């Protein structure tokens, strides 16, 4: 267990770049529009995915996020990649033979579809995470009129995940200190009991936090005073507009041009 | 809740002097409370605190100290008796009055991690006054003022969990000060602090122009900060008097599971405190 790096979470990469300085709501809109464009693009338009990748590469370059950093963290999609790799074997319909393997064409397209779209989506999200601290993301969602209950839950999660992480860590150390052998399956019993008591501690803490909030006049609504400062200007919104426009052009072209 | 000011149990007129205003800052009359599981925590607490006083609430674990604290701003209520803050009696049905009482009584909870829940120090300090309806420059002034009072101004934009425990406790005090309370209630303020943080917090508490009610096991801290103490045990106030006198009474302490640290001599400490600091209380 390490002391977490605050709201500059594990995925945040502190760099002095233009992308880092863009208000969070702009980046969120850009990533969402980009992802939607990627998802609706027909899977046969291979060139379009090349163009989308170029957009990600450009954004990463401007944000000074190294490719290696992005790619190692993109490993999170590995389970989906495995699914994508399985599809050509499991798919129905017409088949081709390649290197002695009997592969389904539909499955090949399906696998490619998941792999390409998934990777692009993950990379775009990682770029957002790398350039925006989590509390800024929540602020951005709030400015985008995301329901307050969701942003509040996210704020609490952000704040107390680390407190609970700390508690879990201390409980683990205490278990080890009493001779628990923390190795794969052997540790499950202690771990499961730990989860139980951690849940109770979280529950009790929730109650104490709530009482402390009530004591400071909380009436069920978060004050909105910090929402207005630093909101995106029209010029900054144009970044989202440009990204969205380029992505939309690529998608439209992919629909209009005949598949290669 | 019945009348505004009950006249039944006003036998505690210890600290009343001619120079003090007539209205006590805080007045509890016959406060009872039992938790839903049947555990009786308070069995008739009577307590009166004059404006500007600093009073320590001492008592063993399970004596009802925390339950008492939660009564002071109306979080717990309904077990009988009255709690009056200045001229306002806690009435759970009157939400506006309850809001004003919560402004007047600032509670600093024992664990700063329970109190600090937002992502920066300044936001957290702004939470209380913003709930009171303050906005813009007035809100900013409150935040600056409260952070300056606890010496944490330069940490305003840091996330609370990056601060040391002592700093977090000071910020927790600031979150309450920003509401400009009349009564500051501190639950175990010295727990888990290293000696330097403990001393710094004492200096801060002493510098604040508010009435202080301090719940603690830390008897030397009580002696250092509070001229008056009350001992609470089994849901009742069993002793009320000058802190130095209570701490000198070995029988009284032993009877209520209170113990001084090894080697601590309250008489000597009182002399040392008197020499180190000219008496400021009139």
Question: Topology of this protein?
Answer:
The complex is a heterodimer of chains A (260) and B (282).
Chain A: H1 18-21, H2 24-40, H3 46-63, H4 67-73, H5 78-90, E1 95-98, E2 101-104, H6 105-131, H7 134-143, H8 148-177, H9 188-215, H10 234-256
Antiparallel strand pairs in A: 1-2
Helix pairs in contact in A: 2-6, 2-7, 2-10, 3-6, 3-10, 5-6, 7-8, 8-9
Chain B: E1 26-34, E2 40-49, E3 54-58, H1 65-72, E4 82-85, E5 88-89, H2 95-104, E6 105-108, H3 112-115, H4 121-131, H5 136-149, H6 165-177, E7 183-187, H7 195-207, E8 211-216, H8 219-225, E9 228-233, E10 236-242, H9 243-248, H10 250-255, H11 266-276
Helix pairs in contact in B: 4-5, 4-6, 5-6
Short description:
Chain A has 260 residues and is mainly alpha-helical. Chain A has helices spanning 18-21, 24-40, 46-63, 67-73, 78-90, 105-131, 134-143, 148-177, 188-215, 234-256; strands at 95-98, 101-104. In chain A, strand 1 and strand 2 form a beta hairpin.
Tell me what the structure shows:
The complex is a heterodimer of chains A (260) and B (282). Chain A is mainly α. Chain A contains 10 helices and 2 strands; from the N terminus they run αααααββααααα. Chain A has helices at residues 18-21, 24-40, 46-63, 67-73, 78-90, 105-131, 134-143, 148-177, 188-215, 234-256; strands at 95-98, 101-104. A two-stranded antiparallel ribbon of chain A has the order 1-2. Chain A is globular, with a radius of gyration of 23 Å. Mean pLDDT of chain A is 81; it is low at 1-7. Chain B has 282 residues and is an alpha/beta fold. Chain B has a single domain (26-259), classed as P-loop containing nucleotide triphosphate hydrolases (Rossmann fold, 3-Layer(aba) Sandwich). In chain B, the strands form 2 sheets. A 6-stranded mixed sheet of chain B has the order 6-7-8-3-9-10, with helices on both faces. In chain B, α7 (195-207) links the parallel β7 (183-187) and β8 (211-216). In chain B, α4 (121-131) runs parallel beside α6 and α5 packs across α6 (165-177). The radius of gyration of chain B is 19 Å and the shape is globular. The chains are: A mainly alpha (260), B alpha/beta (282). Chain A binds chain B through residues 4, 6-7, 135, 138, 155-156, 158-160, 162-163, 205, 208-209, 211-219, 223, 225-226, and chain B through 70, 73, 75, 99, 102-103, 106-107, 109, 111, 113-115, 117-120, 123, 126-128, 130-132, 135-136, 139, 159-162, 175-176, 179.
């Amino acid at each position: 267990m390490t002391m977490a790096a605050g709201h500059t979470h594990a995925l945040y990469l502190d760099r002095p770049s233009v992308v880092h300085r863009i208000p969070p709501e702009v980046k969120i809109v850009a990533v969402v529009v980009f992802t939607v464009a990627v998802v609706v693009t027909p899977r046969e338009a291979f060139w379009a995915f090349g163009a989308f990748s170029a957009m990600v590469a450009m954004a990463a370059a401007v944000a000074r996020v190294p490719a290696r950093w992005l790619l190692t963290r993109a490993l999170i999609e590995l389970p989906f990649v495995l699914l994508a790799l399985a599809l050509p074997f499991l798919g129905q319909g017409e088949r081709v033979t390649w290197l002695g393997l009997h592969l389904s064409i539909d499955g090949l397209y399906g696998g490619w579809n998941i792999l390409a779209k998934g990777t692009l989506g993950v990379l775009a999200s990682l770029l957002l995470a790398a350039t925006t601290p989590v509390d800024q993301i929540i602020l951005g969602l709030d400015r985008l009129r995301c329901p307050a209950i969701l942003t509040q839950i996210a704020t609490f999660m952000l704040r107390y995940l680390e407190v609970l992480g700390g508690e879990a860590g201390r409980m683990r150390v205490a278990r080890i200190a009493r001779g628990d052998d923390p190795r794969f399956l052997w540790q499950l019993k202690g771990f499961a009991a730990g989860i139980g008591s951690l849940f109770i501690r979280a529950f009790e803490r929730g109650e104490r936090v709530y009482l402390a909030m009530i004591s400071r006049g909380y009436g069920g609504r978060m004050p909105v005073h910090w929402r207005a400062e630093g909101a995106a200007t029209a010029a900054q919104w144009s970044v989202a507009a440009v990204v969205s426009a380029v992505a939309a052009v690529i998608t439209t072209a992919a629909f209009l041009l005949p598949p290669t | 809740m019945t009348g505004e000011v009950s006249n039944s149990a006003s036998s505690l007129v210890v600290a009343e002097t001619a120079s003090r205003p007539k209205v006590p800052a805080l007045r509890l009359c016959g406060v009872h409370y039992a938790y839903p599981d049947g555990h009786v925590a308070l069995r008739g607490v009577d307590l009166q605190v004059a404006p500007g006083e600093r009073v320590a609430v001492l008592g063993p674990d399970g004596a009802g100290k925390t339950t008492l604290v939660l009564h002071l701003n109306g979080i717990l209520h309904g077990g009988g008796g009255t709690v009056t803050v200045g001229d306002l009696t806690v009435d759970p049905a009157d939400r506006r009055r309850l809001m004003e009482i919560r402004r007047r009584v600032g509670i600093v909870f024992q664990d700063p991690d329970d109190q600090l829940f937002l992502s920066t120090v300044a936001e957290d300090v702004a939470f209380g006054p913003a709930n009171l309806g303050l906005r813009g420059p007035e809100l900013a002034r409150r935040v600056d003022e409260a952070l300056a009072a606890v010496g944490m101004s330069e940490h305003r934009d840091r996330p609370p969990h990056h601060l040391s425990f002592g700093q977090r406790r000071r910020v927790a005090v600031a979150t309450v000060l920003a509401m400009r309370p009349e009564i500051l209630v501190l639950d175990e303020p010295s727990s888990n602090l290293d000696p330097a943080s403990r001393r710094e917090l004492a200096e801060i508490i002493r510098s604040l122009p508010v009435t202080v009610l301090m719940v603690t096991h830390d008897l030397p801290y009580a002696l250092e900060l509070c001229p008056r103490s009350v001992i609470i045990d089994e849901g009742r106030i069993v002793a009320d008097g000058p802190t130095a006198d209570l701490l000198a009474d070995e029988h009284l302490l032993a009877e209520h599971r209170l113990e001084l640290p090894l080697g601590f001599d309250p008489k000597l400490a009182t002399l040392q405190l008197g020499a180190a600091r000219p008496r400021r209380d009139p």
